[in-house]
Amino acid sequence: MRIAKRAEHENTRQSPFMADLLDGRLKAEAFAALSRQLWFIYRELEDAAESLANHHLVGPLLDPALLRVPALERDLAHLDGPHWAQGLVPLPATRRYCARVREVARAWPAGYAAHHYTRYMGDLAGGQIVRVLAAKTWGHTHEGALFYHFDIRNPSAYRRRYRATLDALPMSEDETHRVAREVTHVFHLNNMLFHDLAELHAPTEPSNGAGTSPTRTGSS
Ligand code: HEM
Questions:
Q1: How far is the CA of 20 from the centre of ligand 1 (A)?
Q2: Measured between alpha carbons, how far is 196 from 220 in angstroms, rounded to an integer?
Q3: Given the CA of residue 163, which atom of ligand 1 is nearest to it?
């Protein structure tokens, strides 16, 4: 299931929020806002993984080296301080994304595999470009961008092995098509998130949005 060249991936990459991020035009606050929303999503993905660990269509894909919640929590503590979780709210697109992860985890484990593949393999591919950018643009060489640092020596080889595992899962042709459609939907959910984030975080302009933090409520 090689999907990186698909139109959905291009839409994601070229969505204004991602394009601005890649061009180094977003402020550190926008980068932090993305991490905050990813925390909600990965918590959902990783809670679901725990409950599906013994499922024959999900278990083979799981690996502690992929887990991102611990890294995100260290990043957020670094970016927002020890009370980072206080007043943290999911954006509407994040809520919809989380609801879909919960739904497939409960009712359609093969659909969960589509979510797992798209996010984690995306993190091991394009996410590694963001890792370099985070260091260059905002100085997050380690803490603050641990989300993008995997304890995996060769991400490309890992992705190859993961895809082989995915392709070997016992699924009917029909189910494989449904999973591919869910991958498209996962891209859509990510695009919706970037859309919500773009509305709140315009590219750098002097004093644009400085000091406001729309993905948090109250002060900490
Ligand atoms: C910063 C924006 C992004 C860039 C620059 C980027 C770039 C890339 C690159 C260079 C590849 C490798 C292509 C290859 O091996 O032939 C890739 C693969 C992939 N990306 Fe992205 N990407 C970005 C965002 C995303 C996002 C947000 C997602 C998930 C929603 C995603 C999901 C994927 C997936 C699933 C693959 C295929 C992995 C595999 O099958 O091995 N990407 N991306």
A1: 16
A2: 23
A3: 40
Cβ contacts of 212 within 8 Å, gap of 6 or more: none
Residue nearest to atom 2 of ligand 1 (CA): 13
Domains with residue ranges and CATH for the chain: 16-200 (1.20.910.10)
Q: Whose CA is nearest to atom 9 of ligand 1?
A: 126
Q: Sign of dihedral through CA atoms 106, 112, 116, 119?
A: negative
Q: Name the amino acid, one letter, at 190.
A: N
Q: Is 161 helix (H, G, I), strand (E, B) or coil?
A: helix
pLDDT digits (tens, 9 = 90+) for 64-106: 999 999 999 999 999 999 999 999 999 999 999 999 999 999 9
Helix (H/G/I), strand (E/B), else coil: 3: coil
Q: Between the CA of residue 71 and those of 39, 156, 163, 194, 195, what are the distances in Å?
A: 9, 21, 24, 21, 24
Residue whose CA is at the smallest distance from ligand 1 atom 33: 122
Q: How many CB atoms lie under 10 A from the CB of residue 156? A: 10
pLDDT at 207: 40
Tokens for 141, please give them.
């060489």
Atom of ligand 1 nearest to the CA of 194: 27
